[in-house]
Fold these 2 entries.
Entry 1:
Amino acid sequence: MKNITKIALVSCVAGLMSAGVALAETVKVSWAAEPYPPFASPDSSGSWSGWEVEFAAAVCKEAKLDCEITPVAWDGIIPALTSKKIDMIISSMTVTDERLKTIDFSDKYYDARAAIAGPKGTAFDATPEGLSGKVLGVQTSSIHQRYAEKHFGASVSEIKEYQTLDEAQQDLAAGRIDAIQGDSFALNSFLKSTTGECCDLKGYVEKDEAILGHGIGIGLRKGDTALKEQLNAAIKAIRADGTYATITKKYFDFDIYGE
Amino acid sequence: MLSTNTLPAVSSGPTVRSVKPFAPIRYALVIAIVCLAVYFGRWDWIGDYWMRLANGIGVTLLLLVSSCVLGFALALPLGVVQATGPRLLAWPARAFCTVIRGTPLLLQLWMLYYGLGAVFAQFPEIRASIFWPVLRTAWPYGLVALVLSFAGYAGEIMRGAFAGVPKGELEAAYTFGMNRRTAFFRIWLPRAVQRALPTLTGETILQLKSTPLVATVTVIDVFAVISKVRQDTYLTYEPLILLASLYIILTITLTRLLRIFEARAIRR
Amino acid sequence: MFDLTLLSLSPPGWGATLLCGFLNSVTLAAGGYLIGLVIGIGGALGKLSDNAFLRELCDIYTTAVRAVPELVLILVLYYAGTDALNQLLTVLGFASVDISGLAAGILVIGVVQGAYSTEVLRGAILAIPHGQVETAKAYGMSPLLTLRRVTLPAMLPFALPGLSNLWLIATKDTALLAVVGFGELTLATKQAAGTTKDYLLFYTAAAAMYLCLTLLSNLVIKLIDRRATRGLAVMHA
């Protein structure tokens, strides 16, 4: 027991050191510091696992980048990128025209659909009429928040914004909200968990490409074109050599890349 | 987390002194910052958000006033039993104050909101109760966390204040034929409150600065409105500058009001 | 009701992760507190100096920092502060520095603490009997020597209650960095709770850790206080 404590503390201090001294050529990869299964969630040993974590490692390896993981809060992830605290966002961030005004993106690396989940007992559709009078939970500064405000804002009784999707899901399970909107993969992962037993998928929301964007890409600072080219080539390469498919098989029984 | 303990050196310290009657550098700086911000910043969003901002300020002030009033009401018994109560009562009161003062408010708030949320998920009966429409909203948890926090800090202050009222004053009251009840309400309580007043007003200012934490559990106070602006507009500086300015104005106004109140209360 | 194995130090227990977060919190608090003290000494001397401009500048700093909620200050300094620092460095012709999360966190806590430290130290310096400083001057001590040999040691007993209180505040203020995604105890707790869904268990455990830190600090403070106030019977009267 004592030894384990010692190891834990040593690795802890080492972690702090590496956080304190940034090496010259490292690229800081970031995702939201929150559980977002099956893409990225912290495990009990303090390290991260999930599809996106493995994807990030594969891309870094392929592009021969020395990547350092620096999770930050989701609602501050774009400011963190623009103020150079991080260099790459690999956090299931959708490429939208609005975000493109502030940051740049690599080519897409997967595609998800926006869906609505709600308690099992009640039946309703993922439409403004179906959600009428309900309290809808979304993650703050996500495409779902934007979408909900535009399409459901007039019909729902309230849109509640959470810092993390996990918190919104927790409140759905607790019955504090009537529905949540999120990416279908993340929602499905929640619905399969014990807490998610309460609820099921009510359906996909109607398309609105202006808000729901063009797939999920790696967020980059504007002007980092060399890095962008490197990453695009790396994504293409791991798609071609089967690495992408191998990682995907561990978490999904279909290709999440989309068409 | 944002509060002090009973040590008088600081408890009265972190209140903000009012602007000096003549402070040319300060005024010049304020004017310069305002000009720079207006000239270089992007402020077109204010038009869309000012209603929500006003609402948010209202929520912040409402939370402040109600949590201070309720918290103080709780602090009185906490202080009394710690100062003179039987050990059976004094000990839990002491433990309460220690726990509240020894842990961050943010942690307490998340524990209340998400911890209880997990309990609700386990017991559907709670959802069937008549309290559910209130329990499912976020503000009660924010308010309760703020009330408990204020009670914890103010309880400690009141313990010192009750213990510090000179014995002679109470003895004099009894000699005048007052019973314990009358002596408490006429002498002990007012004297203790009077002694604690400067520290309590300092605590009130600190409470104002604790209120934005409730935004992390989906209460829409002024902090939450500004967060929304930040996310909608992707602006880094402007919303935060406005938010900081709003809080400076609120703090300075509150400090002045409390000072007037304090001066009146002590004069009596 | 509680599955205590979740707290064990080896996986699948989250104990080591929480402990790590706790260590980060203590590092942040200690670093921020020390930076705050340095700022505080400078600020206090500035506030007591004969230079009106300097006095005013220090006063603006303490007033502004103490009027704005710590949560807001942390957002401002964490997102805008480091960015502004780098822009300033670029304008001045220096290379921009790479400010890590930890350094930014410590700086943020330090700047907040500095304002309160300034006030505590200023009050303590004012409490020194004036004759002591004058005597030092009469002996021909330079201002710096006076500061080191007379002012700082003499004010210590007066500053201790306030400074120890600030340490307790620093330990709790670190929790606010959870909001910007810094991996200290409160965020580690939130992640553990969110992943396992055992909210009450983890929050209770974290509360116990913070409480232990506070109680331990109180003990140490008492010891230091007893040592520092030797021969100052008047203080306790």
Entry 2:
Amino acid sequence: MKLSKKVVLLGHFGVGKTSLFRRFMDNEFSEEYKVTLGVQIKKKLIQLPDGRELSMIIWDTEGHSISIEDTRKSYLLGSHAFIYVFDLTREETYATLTKDLEYLKENYIKVPARVLGNKLDLVNEKEIRRQLTEKNIPFDDLTSAKTNKNVESFFLDLAEEITR
Amino acid sequence: MTKHQNNHSQFNPQVQIIHVTYDNIITESDHTFFNWKEGTLIFDAHPFFEILREFEKNTSSGKKALNFPCIHLEDGKTEKICDITFTLEKEEIIIILFDYTGKYKDLNQIAQQKNESILLAKELELKNKYLLEKEEFKNSFIANINHEIRTPLTSILGFVEVLEKTKLTFEQEELARIIKRESLHLNALIDDMIDLSKIESGTLKIVEERFAFHNLIDGFRESYAKVAEEKQITFETNIDPGIQEYLIGDRTRIYQILNNILINAFKFTEEGKVIFSITKNYQRTNKLSLTFKIEDTGIGIMEENIPYLFERFTRFDLDKRISGTGLGLAIVKNLVDLLNGEIKVTSEPEKGTTFNIKLPFKFEIIKTSPARKKKKYKLPKSATKYRILVVEDEEITQYLIMKVLISQGNFFVDIAINGEEAINYIERRKYDLILMDLTVSKIDGYQATHMIRNNYGDKFISEVPIIGFSGKSNGTARDKCIRSGMNDFIAKPFEQEELIYKITKQIAKKAAN
């Protein structure tokens, strides 16, 4: 049977979820900010290192304003991974991160949640890593959808992880 | 019309109904907006439907329904934003697509505006933070570079003065004169940079002081008459005799404005004349407005260049022999603005340039006595020489001060290279004065002064006159020195005469007490 996994992009509005989505799906980027209403879904076929083929279905959800609990529950149904994206230039987008991760862990116990700090092109990487560590902000990777830094590798690593 | 259509009629949605088996095969569709063929896999219609993999055959007797609002669906050229309902029947799944594209697009616009305004505010905040950091870095860079340049410059200027007093051949005299001129130019450039930096950061303070206006103008008349003579051009001055002898304003900044314009007028005029006129515009109660007009018959400025004249680092002449930093007129414009004045320029290439500067002043209505002249001090007579402790870590400055003081014949000099060594010295030997560099190591000048003033019962130690000195030539350094208990402050690079004057003054005052 063909492998198919659903991955949901979550996070505050304007953090770059759609930019990461477009960058990974179509290798495109636009400086123009366009709000996402509801959810847009695309599929990408990924060749796994062991030769299997994965159909990664990515759900790019509408950003929330306050906390992840605002996200429509039906969007999270049947997920195989969550990607929580925050904006490295806006502290308020990771202010509720710990609480949001706890919520996901409690309600979707088997679904791994990965954390991405996006817009790396706008900050000094060394300095931001130091600040995030100092503030105890957990993250798995830092990306720039604009420059394509760490985007592809992040999704491919995730693909491997959820098909193990 | 179906039951489902009735339920949603209030939004007037269009509806498409699709029947799918639990093997995910489309068995029936009304093709209202998507032409998904019967017999094909629903997963191939759109990746959204892969969610159906999650549902197993409904074995219970009742129906189960699931709602997915605001789903973007596209197939070829058809794009819809739908609310989607799955109804899990016993043998099949019924999928109903409610097309709310219009409603969601309207909502999208509202959300777009709201989010954009928040993001824009954040962007502006970030830009502002970035500019502030940049400004702060620039100011601290300038302050540091000022210190780093002024220290060696002090030595150069000091040693040239020492050198000039020795026996020199004509050629050596000329070379010393060039070194001095260039060093003074460099010093002026640092002053310009500091001023511009202060103006841009808003820290330049305008003072209102009573000053001898005609004295200031006489100074210009005298200095530039010599320049005119050297260049063999004419210098005319026309000063309204009705202008008060003493005015209230920022003498230093007024001098800076006029001097900058006069320097340029003479620099760019090779023949003809420079005319400096001052006229009274009006006088009301204790207020006065003057126009300073400086006309020259120099090379002039092309009309298209005039709008850029007051920008930093602007130079239109390509003659490298004419020196200039390109900062002078930028400073002038900023200073005139700070003084609430106006500056206008007219020019014609090869004919000359005219600057008109309008500045406001105040004056005292009550007749008062003229400003105090600089009081003269003499070293009190003493059987022995006065002992000075110089606290300075830079060898070249130590050497320069020693040369200057010893050449006077009245002083013994000891050198301490840091604050700690200075404290050791004063505990072992009595000093008539301490020259204290503010940034020496171990214990800095301020701390050392504090210790001297507070830790000793012996008045000869605790009341010793202390003069602070530093490359930081702003008012803050001086104020800080006085507040920390020093008697005076001298900025690097200092004139020998000023140094001797200040030392003499402090020793004389101490003796008088």
